[in-house]
Structure formats: structure tokens, C-alpha cells
Design goal:
By secondary structure, the chain is mainly alpha-helical. The protein is built from seven helices and no strands. Helices cover 68% and strands 0% of the residues. It starts with a helix and ends in a 7-residue tail after the last helix.
């Protein structure tokens, strides 16, 4: 990767991380808890366009969880869920664009309820929390994320021009 491409990659990752943090904090009442719709998770469709989104989303989630007062288990495992989702979205980028939201939906639906139960002591059945977290992820990644993806697809060659081919 050329030096200018590395700078572009890091810049895009940093901007994505910053947007993730801002969206999570602005919508904090909806971003945390056993019933959550983390609007910032809509950004998990961005690895469909650029690999720079993978570290951007991971770092953004870590910082957002730190600012949001999350416990260490949430900071670690919640961020890993976002990282796994981003990696999955990137892996599916050559497939149907409608598959892009599935990895983050699945990763968060499977991981976050255990953090809520064991980390925060939320006394609700894990399958119920999988349902509530899953619904929130479908709304943020599946609905808002696909709208974002549709809005960006005509401009991706401009916005993500130096990193999209990685």
C-alpha cells in the first residue's frame, strides 16, 4: 500500500470511529441496556465499501463504550462483537449487498446478551435478551444500515476511492 493510501486508510478509519462514538453518545439512552437500538451500528455496513471501516468500527466501539460508562467485559466483548460483525461484512462484500448487515446482527445477538447477563447482572432470560438485542440490531444494521448503504453506493467510488480495492 502506498504511503498516501495508508494515510487515507487511517483517516477513513479515524473518521468512522469518530462518527461511531458521536452517534453512540448522542443516542446514549437507546445505545445501552437490555433493550437497545444502537444507531451507530448502522455504520457496520461500511466494510462493504472499505476495509478501513473494520478498525474504525472496532476502535469507535471501544471508545463509545468507555465514554458510555461500560464495564470492562462490555468494552472487550461488545467491541469484539462489532469487530466480528465488521469482518463478516467485509467477507461478504462481493455477495449480495443485502447480506452485509447479517454478520453484525448475528455477532451482537449472540454476544451482547451474555455481557448483559453475566457482566451487568440483568436478570432476564438470555434468549429474551437475544430477541431484544437482535431486534435492535435488525433495526440499526438491517434497516438504517441498508438505507445508509443505498445512499452511499452511488458515491462510494469518491468517498472510499483509495481503500475500496483492498
Amino acid at each position: 500500500m502506498k504511503k498516501s493510501n495508508k494515510v487515507t486508510f487511517l483517516t477513513q478509519a479515524a473518521v468512522i470511529a469518530a462518527i461511531y462514538v458521536v452517534l453512540t453518545i448522542i443516542f446514549a439512552p437507546f445505545s445501552f441496556g437490555e433493550v437497545q437500538v444502537r444507531i451507530s451500528e448502522a455504520l457496520t455496513v461500511l466494510p462493504f465499501f472499505t476495509p478501513a471501516a473494520i478498525p474504525g468500527l472496532f476502535v469507535g466501539c471501544i471508545i463509545a463504550n468507555l465514554f458510555g460508562g461500560a464495564i470492562p467485559a462490555d468494552i472487550i466483548f461488545g467491541s469484539i462483537a462489532t469487530l466480528l460483525g465488521a469482518l463478516g461484512t467485509y467477507a461478504l462484500r462481493k455477495k449480495s449487498r443485502f447480506l452485509a448487515p447479517l454478520p453484525p446482527i448475528i455477532a451482537n445477538t449472540l454476544i451482547v446478551p451474555f455481557v448483559l447477563y453475566y457482566g451487568y447482572g440483568v436478570n432476564l432470560p438470555i434468549p429474551f435478551m437475544m430477541l431484544t438485542v437482535g431486534i435492535g440490531e435488525v433495526l440499526s444494521c438491517g434497516v438504517i444500515g441498508l438505507v445508509l448503504q443505498s445512499a452511499l453506493k452511488n458515491y462510494s467510488h469518491v468517498i472510499f476511492r483509495d481503500t475500496a480495492k483492498a
